[in-house]
Amino acid sequence: MSDGERVRVNIFSTIHRFLGENGELKNKKYVTLLFEEVEMFLHPEWSRTFLDDLLLELKDYSEKQFKIIFASHSPFLLSDICSEGVIYLEKKARETVVKEVEIKNFGANIIDLFKNTMFLESTFGKFATEKIKVIVDKIEKAEKYSDIKHEVDFIIGEIGEKLISNKLKSMIESKFENKDEEYYRKKIEEYQEKLKKLGNKENDKNS
């Protein structure tokens, strides 16, 4: 089994061991379940569905009342929990304090929760961010497009966020249009490649 599978089996088997017929808590009406960083080793999809899976397991003990507490660094669970049930903590001067956050997290987009509740400075990798800044600087300082073409084209082609890649393309266009023959050669190559792809699609339709 994978580490994630082991974690899930361990969690649910432990619950049944303590709450089942011969469990130490079988006669307890009120039970508190504390999970510390339950998302460790879990696939993101399993983290996203964990609370629903847990509540399904606890239906076997409908005579009991549960208080469930999660200590977590992951926003995957937050989208299933009402805001009044969430406490955010942060470090201040070597002390852990409660952070006031006005966020409606129940049913919120998990991607938005990553930025808004995990207090990220950015939703992009730091290395990628710094590399893109270097590319911007090179575009601004370059005298000829051919001087930066290879590296710049490669990075723009790798960027997954279209808004950023299009912005870099616009910078190049405004910097080198009507000034650099190599820039227009590249544009011609791009359009020729697009025409080739369109031609291939048309041939596929007719075949």
Q: Please give the count of helices.
A: 7
Share of residues in strands: 5-15%
Q: Shape, please?
A: elongated
Q: Please outline the major beta sheet.
A: 2 strands, parallel
Please, what is the average pLDDT? 87
Helical percentage: 40-55%
Major sheet: order of its strands? Answer: 1-2
Please state the structural category: mainly alpha
> Which H/E pattern describes the elements?
HEHEEEHHHHH
Q: Using only CA atoms, what is the Rg?
A: 27 Å
Number of strands: 4
Low-confidence stretches: none
CA distance, first residue to last residue? 47 Å
Features:
207 residues, mainly alpha, two-stranded parallel ribbon, two-stranded antiparallel ribbon, 7 helices, 4 strands, 52% helix, 12% strand
How does this model look, in words?
With 207 residues, this protein is mainly alpha-helical. It is built from seven helices and four strands. The strands form two sheets. Strands 1-2 form a two-stranded parallel ribbon. Helix 4 runs parallel beside helix 6. It starts with a helix and ends with a helix. The model has no long low-confidence stretch (mean pLDDT 87).
Topology:
Layout: H1 3-19, E1 30-36, H2 44-58, E2 65-71, E3 88-92, E4 95-99, H3 110-117, H4 126-141, H5 149-158, H6 162-176, H7 181-206
Parallel strand pairs: 1-2
Antiparallel strand pairs: 3-4
Helix pairs in contact: 4-6
Quick synopsis:
Helix content is 52%, strand content 12%.
